[in-house]
Amino acid sequence: MRHRRYLTVLAAAAVVPIALSGCSGGSSGSSGDPDTLTILDYYNNEPDKTLVQETLDTCAADLGVTIDRESVPGKDLIQKVLQRSSSKTLPDVLMLDNPDVQEIAATGGLSPLSNYDVDTEGFADGIIEAATYEGELYGLAPAVNTLGLFYNVDLLEEAGIDPPETWAELKDAAAALTDGDQYGIAFSAIATYEGAWQFLPFMWTNGGDETDLDTPEVQEALQLWVDLVDDGSASNSVLNWSQADVKDQFAAGKAAMMVNGPWQIPALNETDINWDSVQVPVNEVGQTPVAPLGGEVWTVPETGDRDKQAKAAEFVECISSDDNQLALAESRYLVPTRTALSEEFVEKMPEMKSFTEQVANARSRTGKLGEDWPEAATVIYNAIQLAITGKAPVDEAFSQASEG
Amino acid sequence: MTPVTRESRQAAHESEADATRAAPVAPRRRRRFTKDNIVKAMFIVPAAIYIVLFFGYPVVKNLLMSLQEYTTKTFFTGEAPFVGIENYLTVVDSNLFWPSMTNTALFTIGSIAGQFTIGLALAVFFKRRFPLSGFLRAMLLLPWLLPLIVASATWRSIMDKDSGILNQFLTGVGLDAVPWLTSPSVALTAVIIVNIWIGIPFNLTILYGGLQDIPGELYEAGALDGATGWKAFWHITVPNLRPVVSVVLVLGVVYTLKVLDIILGMTNGGPANATQTLAIRSYQESFVNFEFGVGAAFSNILIVISLVFAVIYLRANRRAVDE
């Protein structure tokens, strides 16, 4: 009998931890130590992880703090941020992809930099716009990227073709360079934000605007893509290609030109391809190429610890100091965000010339629509998919896509 | 599921018998009764807590979420105003609702039909003993062992229009290349084919097990009466396999309805929304558009559809046990 009773107690004891473990979630947010800053970013792949760590270590030494860094895969970052918001364990310093800054700022989870004495002078307009929500600046980016047109120097020389500057030249060049299983051009028209992002240089350069997608300017840009696929200059696999897939096609010699960004340069340098790049071609001579601004912004979340937030702001300022901008831009093939550094940078990195020029006029995706940008991006990639597959004529694709 | 019902029923019988036996000694009976109950409860409590925490909570939460305006702001402020059935109206109003319903139905029916037919054919084939049959059967299990995201990435490259091995084979034997993943009219078929490939091992294994349970004497007796080949299959195999078949089909439907990885990995719902299903809509609304309320509404619709089949499964199962 006695044994029985023990058994009962034991069973009860066994149940309690199970019940409790369901409630307590292990979490490491802003830590108690006043001299430790927690950092969250999405540079979880090499070499970026190490290269960014160098900058972070430099700043930690400058400020006399220790850092506790966590890197998660890019696609998990926002989910992680939201989870941590609800458990009130946001990190002291948070990296965000620039189109997400306004969305997260709108939740009230970020602290505006005007609360602290942060130097925000001299940054390119586009990146300031991207990090500004309702008149307040929420973050700084040390270096940014954008899109350009890469070309295979050997293939173009063989065919006696100059790098295209207009859409007409682009179409002719792409057609002339299409031969057997080699396509003239590759780009990403995938059904994700990546597809929308790749379309923007063409749409913006031609005067199109995301606040009104049903205009001739936007349709002309879409027509260009549809033409490239229809006449066989681009594979219709562009519908499924991510930008990494596009780079693989180019690197394998299966595409003579590609729309892509400078973050692919390290990978391209490991191949035998003799490449170069120019700005994205314009529709009519005289237009200014306008490409979207990519890159990550460092922000200070609302953690409730005033002193630490001030320290985190100093840290964010340090990441974007001139020296760190140049170091990061050089090692990661990005463009410094302080326009005054451009000249010095291009001298050091001549292969980054076209991208540096492009960044000066680059626009942020959220500049006009703010938190409503994701919706517009969805309409854009859906319209692209409808038009390239022939499910909708070009002049109806955007209205059809916007119906949801 | 089967043994649980049987055992619990048996347990119920036993405790009744216990109670009758102990009836004459009233006080003793009472004490034993409660103590027994406590001990029994102790065994049930962990399972009950587990179910409430890990099944009950998400389901109720999901239901509530579908009635709330649940956005990124909610995570920080904790505020999610109730909006009634507005999210469901958004779902039904969206242009992609009926196409995704149709796609879900086509995907499920197509996958199940393919998986089941091929799985059954292979199971019958492997019923005969021949050299290497065990090895071959093990090989056929491979798709089951592969993580779905790996399988979808592999198939995506196999089905690539230009460099995919599948089209190279087709053009090699003089056929036309098929735009597997780039044509809206073919893409759904392509993902169904891959899902069939993934589902065959499950059907094969369960049906093979069912076939092993059919006594060989039945076939011997049948053969004496002239039932061989197709006749034996229709009149001996099929009727004896029926309980297993119902289990395989219903479980297959419930699994297939919620398939996400394959489609996400191969087409991401494209091209031009040709492979959108309810599960994909739910995922995209929640984790791409961050409209958690609408995403929850989509998944609740999916849960209700699954529940219908789960009820069919439970009833079929009960009948199988009674037989």
Order of helices and strands of chain B: HHHHHHHHHHHHHHH
**What is the approximate shape of chain B?**
flat
Specify the number of helices of chain B: 15
Largest sheet of chain A at a glance?
A: 5 strands, mixed
Q: How many DSSP-defined strands of chain B?
A: 0
Largest sheet of chain B: none
Approximately how much helix is present in the residues of chain B? over 70%
- Structural class of the helix and strand makeup of chain A? alpha/beta
Query: Can you tell me the overall shape of chain A?
Result: globular
Query: Radius of gyration of chain A, rounded?
Result: 24 Å
Sheet-strand content of chain B, in percent, reads: under 5%
Give the largest chain-chain interface (CB within 8 Å).
A-B, 44 and 43 residues
Mean pLDDT of chain A: 89
Main sheet: strand order of chain A? 2-1-3-12-6
In short:
Chain A is 45% helix and 12% strand.
